[in-house]
C-alpha cells in the first residue's frame, strides 16, 4: 500500500495542504485505516498544542475538563458512502464524494495513445497539470521518466509497474529518479497531478513524445 507522506498528513491535519493534494489525501484516507488513525493522532496533538497556547485565556478547570475530553478514545467513523460518479466508455465509475467538484470541471476525454485516455480538470489554482487518466484493460504506458514530481491516485481498478501493484486509494509518488512502465490488466482510472511533462525513454516510445506534449497542454 502506498501512503501519503507524513509531511502531507501533517499539513492535512493543519488544513495547510493545497486543494489538489488535500483531495488526494482525503480519498486515500477513505481507503486507509492506518492513515486515518495517524491523522487523528496528529489532530489531537495539534489540539493539545493550541490548548497549551490558550491556557492563559481559559481557567484551569475549563482546561482540565477539555483535556479529559481529549483523552477519551476516539472512534474511527466509517467513511461516508461515495456519491460522486464519472461515466466513460459506457462504464459508470463510483467515486468518493471528495471528487465531486473535480468531476464537474472535467473536460472531454482524449485518446493519448492506443489504450490510454485522459481528461483535463479545468480551473484549479495550483501549478499542476491535473487529469483523470483511464487505461483500458490490457493498456500500458511506454517506459518513461518524470521531469518533475507526479502524484497518481488510483480510483478504480489497478495498475502495476516495476515497483509494485497499486489498487484503489493508493497514492503513488513518482519523480525524476523513477523510470517505469505502468501496465493495467483490468483497466484503471486514476487522478494524476503532474508538475512537468513526462519524458519517454525507450526507443519506440520516443515517437510518443509529441502526444505527451499534446496531452499535457490540455491540463490546467
Ligand atoms: Zn495510508
TrEMBL record:
<dbReference type="Pfam" id="PF12973">
    <property type="entry name" value="Cupin_7"/>
</dbReference>
<dbReference type="InterPro" id="IPR014710">
    <property type="entry name" value="RmlC-like_jellyroll"/>
</dbReference>
<dbReference type="InterPro" id="IPR041916">
    <property type="entry name" value="Anti_sigma_zinc_sf"/>
</dbReference>
<dbReference type="InterPro" id="IPR011051">
    <property type="entry name" value="RmlC_Cupin_sf"/>
</dbReference>
<protein>
    <recommendedName>
        <fullName>ChrR-like cupin domain-containing protein</fullName>
    </recommendedName>
</protein>
<dbReference type="InterPro" id="IPR025979">
    <property type="entry name" value="ChrR-like_cupin_dom"/>
</dbReference>
<feature type="domain" description="ChrR-like cupin">
    <location>
        <begin position="130"/>
        <end position="192"/>
    </location>
</feature>
<dbReference type="InterPro" id="IPR012807">
    <property type="entry name" value="Anti-sigma_ChrR"/>
</dbReference>
Amino acid at each position: 500500500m502506498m501512503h501519503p507522506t507524513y509531511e502531507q498528513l501533517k499539513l492535512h491535519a493543519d488544513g495547510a495542504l493545497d486543494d489538489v493534494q488535500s483531495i488526494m489525501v482525503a480519498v486515500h484516507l477513505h481507503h486507509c485505516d492506518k492513515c486515518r488513525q495517524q491523522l487523528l493522532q496528529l489532530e489531537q496533538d495539534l489540539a493539545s498544542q493550541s490548548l497549551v497556547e490558550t491556557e492563559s485565556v481559559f481557567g484551569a478547570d475549563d482546561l482540565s475538563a477539555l483535556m479529559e475530553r481529549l483523552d477519551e478514545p476516539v472512534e474511527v467513523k466509517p467513511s461516508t458512502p461515495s456519491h460522486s460518479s464519472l461515466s466513460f466508455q459506457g462504464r459508470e465509475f463510483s467515486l468518493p464524494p471528495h471528487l465531486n467538484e473535480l468531476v464537474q470541471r472535467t473536460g472531454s476525454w482524449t485518446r493519448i495513445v492506443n489504450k490510454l485516455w485522459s481528461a483535463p480538470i479545468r480551473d484549479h489554482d495550483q501549478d499542476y497539470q491535473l487529469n483523470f487518466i483511464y487505461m483500458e484493460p490490457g493498456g500500458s504506458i511506454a517506459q518513461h521518466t518524470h521531469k518533475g514530481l507526479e502524484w497518481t491516485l488510483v480510483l478504480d481498478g489497478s495498475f502495476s509497474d516495476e515497483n509494485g501493484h497499486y489498487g484503489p486509494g493508493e497514492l503513488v509518488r513518482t519523480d525524476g529518479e523513477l523510470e517505469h512502465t505502468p501496465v493495467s490488466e483490468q483497466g484503471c482510472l486514476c487522478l494524476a497531478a503532474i508538475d512537468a511533462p513526462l519524458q519517454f525513454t525507450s526507443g519506440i516510445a520516443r515517437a510518443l513524445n509529441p502526444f505527451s506534449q499534446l496531452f499535457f497542454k490540455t491540463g490546467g
